[in-house]
Amino acid sequence: MDKSLKTKELLEKIESSINHIYEAEEIIGISRLIWEDILNLSELQRVSNSSIQLSEEAFHKLEDCLGRLQKQEPIQQIIGFVEFYGRKFKVDQNVLIPRPETEELCHLIINRFKDRKESLNIIDLGTGSGCIASTLSNEIINSNVSASDISLSAIQLAKINAVELEAEVEFIHDDICNSKIDQQFQLIVSNPPYVTLAEKKEMKANVLAFEPHLALFAPEENPLFFYEKICDFAINHLHPEGYIYLEINHLLYKETLDLFSTANFKEVEAIKSLNGHYRFVSCIKT
Predict the structure, then answer these.
(1) Smallest Cα–Cα separation from 111: which of 99, 119, 103, 123?
(2) How far apart are CA 20 and CA 205, in angstroms?
(3) pLDDT of residue 2
(4) Taking a C-beta distance cutoff of 8 angstroms, is the pair 36, 43 a contact?
(5) Which region, left, alpha or beta, applies to residue 253 given φ > 0 means left and ψ of -120 to 50 means alpha?
(6) What are the pLDDT digits (tens) for 105-162?
(7) How far is the C-alpha of 190 from the C-alpha of 93, rounded, in Å?
(8) CA distance readout (Å), 17 to 65, 157, 207
(9) Above pLDDT 70, what percent of the chain?
(10) Are strands 3-6 and 51-54 parallel, antiparallel or unpaired?
(11) For all residues of the chain together, what is the average pLDDT?
């Protein structure tokens, strides 16, 4: 039997189910995703105060979604995708859910190379969902994009995303700690694991329980471990005058700058994200 609810009642039902878990701003975003992608209702219906007819199937979907949210499962995994740079990327528990900062990283790179006439060989190290690799492939003309990951499950999902988004990416199953890649590149980009043990203790359950720790956490004894491996990879696989763009832990930006400066990279620069923290590092190989 269909259920009739006023818009306000439906929104209050969603909010009251999760307001003990999420902040007000997060609730707004989650409510919108439930409205559009679980219930298939329009924005016009959301802002009006009309009655909404929910089929029995839609009501069960809503109840299931709210139950999963109460267990702190991320809304992106419930709906199965995330919006990233104007495209939908499939996500699951095998990959990190792309964050807005990673969109900013892509934007920095696209702005720098969008007018380049020559071909640009790019590798995305630790590709996860493939959001960086597929975005750069689609946005930068004459780019030849490769992407690697240690996780076969991540590679499989990234391939699906690339096919659905018509992005030309070569995916490589590879371990940055013992890389077998023998190609040379003009741009290396990565969002490697960088969360420290101290930060882990403050993280929410919706991240700790549902996103892959392999993609999140740096070794306790060396939080720059993966940046050191990327630096070594660049020394062997980056063309002279080639570029590196990295997402970083803002608490360790000085140490990350020192790492690449000491390795004789030039124009080593920390770049702030929109929230005012140093979240990116770029440099050039001498």
Answers:
(1) 103
(2) 13
(3) 61
(4) yes
(5) alpha
(6) 999 999 999 889 899 999 999 999 999 999 999 999 999 999 999 999 999 999 999 9
(7) 20
(8) 10, 31, 19
(9) 99
(10) antiparallel
(11) 94
**97, 211 contact by CB (below 8 A):** yes
Q: Which region among 94-103, 192-201, 255-264 has the lowest average model confidence (pLDDT)?
A: 192-201
pLDDT one-digit tens code per residue, 253-269: 999 999 999 999 999 99
**DSSP, residue by residue, 184-235:** -EEEEEE----B-HHHHTTS-HHHHTTS-HHHHB--TT-TTHHHHHHHHHHH
Exposure on the CB side of residue 184, measured as CA atoms within 13 A: 8
Higher pLDDT, 53 or 67: 67
* Whether 249 contacts 194, CB under 8 Å: yes
Give the strands of the sheet with 120-125, arranged side by side: 169-173, 143-149, 120-125, 185-190, 238-247, 278-285, 265-272
Q: How far apart are CA 243 and CA 143, in angstroms?
A: 14
Q: Phi and psi (nearest 5°) for 219?
A: -55, 140
Measured at the CA of 200, the angle between CA 199 and CA 203, to 5 degrees, comes to 90
| Cβ 59 vs Cβ 3: under 8 Å | yes
Report d(CA 285, CA 240) in Å as an integer.
5
Ranking 116-130, 179-193, 196-210 by mean pLDDT, the lowest is 196-210
3-state DSSP assignment of residue 19: coil
Which CB contacts under 8 angstroms, 24+ apart, belong to 177-182? 177/229, 179/148, 179/233, 179/237, 181/123, 181/146, 181/148, 181/233, 181/237
Query: Among 157, 184, 11, 148, which Cα is nearest to 82's?
Result: 157
Other CB atoms closer than 10 Å to residue 227's CB: what's the count?
Answer: 25
